[in-house]
Amino acid sequence: MPQVSKKGQVMPASPIRRLVPYSDAAKARGIKVYHLNIGQPDIETPRFALEALNDYRWKVLAYTHSAGEASTRRKMTEYYKKWGIDVTEDEIILTNGGSEAIQFAFGVCLDAGDEVIIPEPFYANYNGFATESDVVVKPIMSFIHRGFALPSIEEFEKVITDKTKAIMICNPNNPTGAVYSEEELHQLAELVKKYDLFLFVDEVYREFAYDGKYVFPALNLGIDDHVIMFDSVSKRYSACGARLGMFVSKNKEVMKAAMKYAQARLCPSAFSQVFAEAAVDTPDDYFVAVKNEYLARRNCVVVGVNAIPGCFCPTPRGAFYAVARLPIDDSDAFCKWLLEEFNYNGETVMLAPATGFYSVEGMGKDEVRISYCLKVEDLQAALKCLDEALKVYPGRVHF
Amino acid sequence: MPQVSKKGQVMPASPIRRLVPYSDAAKARGIKVYHLNIGQPDIETPRFALEALNDYRWKVLAYTHSAGEASTRRKMTEYYKKWGIDVTEDEIILTNGGSEAIQFAFGVCLDAGDEVIIPEPFYANYNGFATESDVVVKPIMSFIHRGFALPSIEEFEKVITDKTKAIMICNPNNPTGAVYSEEELHQLAELVKKYDLFLFVDEVYREFAYDGKYVFPALNLGIDDHVIMFDSVSKRYSACGARLGMFVSKNKEVMKAAMKYAQARLCPSAFSQVFAEAAVDTPDDYFVAVKNEYLARRNCVVVGVNAIPGCFCPTPRGAFYAVARLPIDDSDAFCKWLLEEFNYNGETVMLAPATGFYSVEGMGKDEVRISYCLKVEDLQAALKCLDEALKVYPGRVHF
């Protein structure tokens, strides 16, 4: 029997999805499972944007332009203008989700063995995309007691080698909820100029910043040739199933190479482009309501987790995730135990072990990622389960 | 300024799409361009399948299962049953077009530097996907005077090394239209067993076989652990814009590794899955009519091209492409000249230079790929342009 590649073997399984068989089994036993493990919002998708598909009369559902329809890209430039980001349609390639935008960047900017520096914990699938491209992730640590602030420029410099081609950040950050300041970003800009690196910035949570924070656009840093920005309609319009992302850069050589990647796979879904083009007209009050809802949920989680003895959860300033430290021996074991062995009045909670968000072995063993995509009463019920679970978990430790 | 990767530089541009700026310019000058360069059918997409999206009432357009919705995959098993292919829903992963299925296979089965043997000419984007994955394509020649028949097993064996991990074929073949016989496929099956290789088979043109030919399913070769089959709704339902493909294998280790690839990019478009699930119920008479239409077009092209002095076009038995030999010095120069310098009564024809379908430098310089996706009267007008063009082309050669 022929063997799968080494790459196929070491490719990491999703830490967010790998516990799914245990939650399925719990549900089969009649247990109600609160899903705090996955960033799937329960917010309604703007209906008029879904209905744009009803109005669309294809005779032939043809290939679109490989970069996406010009009309859709033009509409995206309007969206960016609202955020003070000045891009042209030629600086945008529409992709199969934000995921493919990252895959393009890894391919276009890094060869096998080249290195990308990423502050950790980071979005777990970055590891997967790196494995696919034989790219090496060099993690540098951000710390829970500092609210997962961006590591200092010195920390970045320490790990730069002649193999380093890029620095990658997610702002607002999944999984930590950190929002980086304009000043921090300008320091990063100086650094990438000094070492002639690319700066990859994942801004898919742009809309979700709280407490007066503002997501300073990486494309406005004045380092046009260095920046590739990743974006997506998934979280913005609660439309994860659309799988429509954007690869945005003002570097012409990068765009030229990325277009070859885009042409090879022909085009993104024509349906998804129609949806996304319509969705740009979502009225501002939709976002006001959604943001207020997430703010209430965030506060519920932060207050609730910190009220549980032995737990600590810094306040996330953006996105809809928090990383919390729990008094546990092993987050993988704990999250599995919650599904397999525990219930409180027939209910339990599913969390994502933070280990999957670190690439350094052993990190995140006392941390979990909590996604606050559920409504407040469900979050409260879920936190009650967590509280009760920690009272009886055999692997509880005392700090 | 940071430089794009070597990979990004050597990534081939699409031979099908790279002449587009010249056709755009020709159109801007008022020239009518017949597009025989691209496999974009003009056949209408089954309307009821498009309308399935109107009936679908999402509240939240959520992520689907990473392998695609179970209901959609189950529906695909019904489709395969009609073709005598017995697969379960767990043996299918839905992908972003057939393209992504190929990307998965290259990643899951081959490491950087590993080799895949492909008879050439072959679908140009195979080269792109190989570059993305640092996989090495080892071409073996199929010849126009033999109707692009599958090379002999001895030819395959000659290029097998300890780096060879897979053999890849497209059946029916894009660009040649060859359909491989059951006997040829069984010989290949013996070969992959002998050397313990994977057999990748791209069957996206399954519906399009003429002259009583039948596309013998690779999954029925009795070498379950070796076969990965690529499929797509694009050509079958004239739905290229749906970008929904399938990665199908009975090798459990392959499916396990491919699921990690699928999970990393979360899921394919939910819209496209709804379309594809509905499209499986397309009535048989749709295909009868479509096939008859393509058959008439094929005959028009084969007869027409062979009637032009100095031209030779073997009869394609499947798909909707033909590779023809023309009395020209350089197919790239000729195809560009057709758009830039030639017109016949204000009309010209766009062809795909065959050079892009070979990986051996210099091959295909006197060949073009003709896609017969246009209706017969347009094909006739296009062939008239070709005939007139060859009378005056400065680079005409005499065989």
What does this structure look like?
2 copies of one chain form a homodimer. Chain A is of the alpha/beta class. Chain A has 2 domains: 147 residues, Aspartate Aminotransferase, domain 1 (Alpha-Beta Complex); 217 residues, 3-Layer(aba) Sandwich (Aspartate Aminotransferase, domain 2), CATH 3.40.640. In chain A, the strands form 3 sheets. Chain A has a 7-stranded mixed sheet with strand order 2-8-7-6-5-3-4, with helices on both faces. In chain A, strand 3, helix 6 and strand 4 form a beta-alpha-beta unit. The longest helix of chain A is centred in the last third of the chain and has 23 residues. The model of chain A has no long low-confidence stretch (mean pLDDT 96). The interface between A and B is large, with 83 and 83 residues.
Task: Give the key terms.
Aspartate Aminotransferase, domain 2, globular, seven-stranded mixed sheet, three-stranded antiparallel sheet, homodimer, 399 residues, 2 domains, alpha/beta
